[in-house]
Amino acid sequence: MLNVKRTHGWWLGLLPILYLLLYAVQFSLFDVFYSSRIDPEYVYLLNGLTVAEWKMTRIGHIDHPGTPFQVYTGAMIRLLHLFGGKEDLATDVFSRPEWYLKGCSHSLAIILSILMLTLGSWGYRKLHSGWALALQLIPVLSPMVWMTQTRYT
Question: Is the peptide bond before 40 cis (omega within 30 degrees of 0)?
Fold first, then answer.
């Protein structure tokens, strides 16, 4: 017997999938990072590399809110290198910085879509249908999200 209660929330996955599709289209329209947007992307990449190499005392700047982001970048560099590294870590990041920046940027889009799905699921269970969709829209209602989602900032 089909559990009707479980099938009512199937539409909660549509908005996160739509977000990922729009992100992919928008990302494909932009040129490489170094052509127009090197700051702060490359700064985060290089500081993330420093974190990935466990050289915490050599991070260029730690006196701003971007420090947790640099730690995240370091973790992503390690993860990307684990699955797609071609040389030692530092050489690989310096020889393929765009590949690492794209991987890091894509990971943020995936995290945002997972958060949208989680928020919608929670909202559906606690508040019911209409509010679930409203909760899912919160992360993407800001024009700033759409203007900066293809950047790694």
Answer: yes
User: How far apart (Å, rounded) are the C-alpha atoms in residues 131 and 50?
Assistant: 43
CA angle 107, 140, 10 (to 5 degrees): 80
Cα three-residue angle 77-18-40, rounded to 5 degrees: 35
10-residue mean pLDDT profile of the chain (153 residues): values are: 51 88 86 71 88 81 76 95 93 95 92 90 80 82 77 72
Question: In this structure, are residues 146 and 137 in contact, taking their beta carbons and an 8 Å threshold?
Answer: no
Place of tokens 């995290």: 111
Give 12's DSSP letter: G
CA distance 98 to 34: 8
Neighbours of 9 (CB within 10 A): 16
